[in-house]
Amino acid sequence: MWVIFAFGSAFFAGVTALLAKCGIRKTDSTAATAIRTVVVLLFSWVMVLLAGSWGDIVSIRGGTWLFLILSGLATGASWLCYFRALQLGDINKVVPIDKSSIVLTLLLAFILLGESVSLTKGLGVALIGAGTLLMIEKKDAAPPRAGRGIGWFWYALGSAVFASLTSLLGKVGISGVESNLGTAIRTGVVLLMAWLMVLIEGKLPKLRGIPRRELMFICLSGLATGGSWLCYYRALQEGPASVVVPIDKLSILVTVAFSYFVLHERLTKKAAAGLFAVVLGTLVMLI
């Protein structure tokens, strides 16, 4: 049964990007992130209630709270960058860069935490890095034409950097917190950060003009994220992490498939080879 939940996690994670893309065609990405986070927060606390860990919040130490808040801020920055990148660029190009956070996490862990890098992990890093470069077309690096630049690339890169910082902060300071409770607290920080950004940037009035169709997609993307988390932690509870995690990371295949059939974003042969390298590299790193 846990295998079904693992594939369910990958499916919902892959669909999240597509639903978000459909919800930010006209809607500001920061405002969309703020709305979406409300849905995710509700889902995360449902997970806490199901796990029965809500009472543990009183035993969290001050240092742990600090890392929870920092990791929440990093998560919020990653989400804001990610959805801005999705608004400006194609899913097929944004998602691989975001997934490269695996590589950045490994490198930062080696530099900052002194963790060793095995030959297998090194090979995975090389494959993911090469695959990501292949999936970014040369024309994307060209000077902007007709008002279109490569701003999406920098936002996607920022998403990957902050995602890897989230992993490191979690590894350093919140390992003693029950995972569902830690996720719920971090999501609360993300919610505050997202709405603060909406207020600072003066985008509160834009919330009134969000098309109903896009609002529906934004909420669905939040539900998809919550569904992914529920399936992921259920799979981890019943199955081996060494199998569950690689299956979850294959969400990139779901995203690319849906973007092809729904958004008609086609992969060139070069980009398809890059996708294969990214998937292979992910599997190699998680053996």
TrEMBL record:
Give the source's domain of life in one word.
Bacteria
List membrane-spanning regions: 30-52, 64-86, 106-131, 152-172, 184-202, 214-235, 241-263
Q: Which UniProt keywords apply?
A: Membrane, Transmembrane, Transmembrane helix
Q: Where does the EamA domain start and stop, copy by copy?
A: 1-136, 152-286
Which InterPro entries does the record associate with it? EamA_dom, EmrE-like
Give a Pfam family name. EamA
Gene Ontology cellular component list = membrane
Family as reported in the entry's similarity comment: Belongs to the EamA transporter family.
Kindly give the PANTHER family that the UniProt entry links to this protein: ACYL-MALONYL CONDENSING ENZYME-RELATED, SOLUTE CARRIER FAMILY 35 MEMBER G2-RELATED
Q: What is this protein called?
A: EamA family transporter
Organism field: Acutalibacter muris
Lineage, opening ranks: Bacteria, Bacillati, Bacillota, Clostridia, Eubacteriales
